[in-house]
């Protein structure tokens, strides 16, 4: 008798990962649960103001994941990745902010930790499995004609998470399963209720990286430098306590008063520690340079091509012309000016529902 294929599912304790595991069981796989432990209690987050992936609330999340796996009738293993998370995600987060850019820790966590070190460390610990799966909403297929695994948007456009997955490598895609790619969120909640997991259908989901709004807890206070807040003409409007407190397009908590109309962060200069603010019109730009390109569903393209680019998760992909540069970067020119193109954030290129490549906005 042929042995069942074994799938390790990344279990967070939420409805999506739980139903991913349940669906795989129903499809005949042998399923085990993996949960990563990343919290570092040396970080001074005491009073948790909100739910976040990184925070002391992880203790409760680990217990919930263990109880969930018991209810599902599957093995559960905790993979401790605190040091690896600090080296890969927290260090990236802090260094990017220090450069006057806005990091996207979910992108780095997915590529290096969740779909990288989590399954690797699990196998090193003697946990055997054939495939790795999560509750992400996206599609994976294999294109025989070009010999590549390809990533596509999920059926549920409102829950599609391909933006965060565009930085995965071919070897990672080769043994990945996304059971929810062809489902809607409502279908998954209905499945949870029908299957005796109604409490998960109404459970609040964690959408934030950090369980606090104060990102300064991750920084050495001696590295934070004060600076000026100026308008587009260079007139000083106020002072700030560190550029890590700002991102392009930010409107609230600017530390200035008395402007004739709403002001937004237009530019952040890490060399002078100067933050430039202005009216909304200055946030619209038509081009940017993308670096650190990960060619995902197709081989590297060397000639200009048309695509749709998404510059943040909640951004509707916009038409653009992409020109490869000699240094491997991409020049992106949008058909229509886009609001708040933010250096440091991910930019993902689509051809319809197919993810062509992902990169990082370098300059705008």
Largest sheet: 6 strands, antiparallel, barrel
Helix content: 10-25%
Strand order of the largest sheet: 14-17-16-15-18-19
Give the second-level CATH assignment, the architecture of the largest domain.
Answer: 3-Layer(aba) Sandwich
State mean pLDDT (0 to 100 scale). 94
CATH homology group of the largest domain = HUPs
Radius of gyration: 22 Å
Element order, helices and strands? Answer: EHEEHEHHEEEHHEHHEEEEEEEEEEE
Assembly type of the shown chains? Answer: single chain
- The CATH topology annotation of the largest domain reads as Rossmann fold
What's the overall geometry?
Answer: globular
CATH C-level label of the largest domain:
Alpha Beta
The low-confidence parts are: none
Number of helices: 8
How many domains?
Answer: 3
Number of DSSP strand runs: 19
Structural class given helices, strands, pairing? alpha/beta
Could you explain the architecture of this structure?
The protein has 364 residues and is an alpha/beta fold. The chain has three domains: 162 residues, Rossmann fold; 55 residues, Adenine nucleotide alpha hydrolases-like domains (SH3 type barrels), CATH 2.30.30; 81 residues, Beta Barrel (Elongation Factor Tu (Ef-tu), domain 3), CATH 2.40.30. It is built from eight helices and 19 strands. The strands form five sheets. It has a six-stranded antiparallel beta barrel. Helix 1 links the parallel strand 1 and strand 2. Helix 3 runs antiparallel to helix 4. The protein is globular. The relative contact order is 0.13.
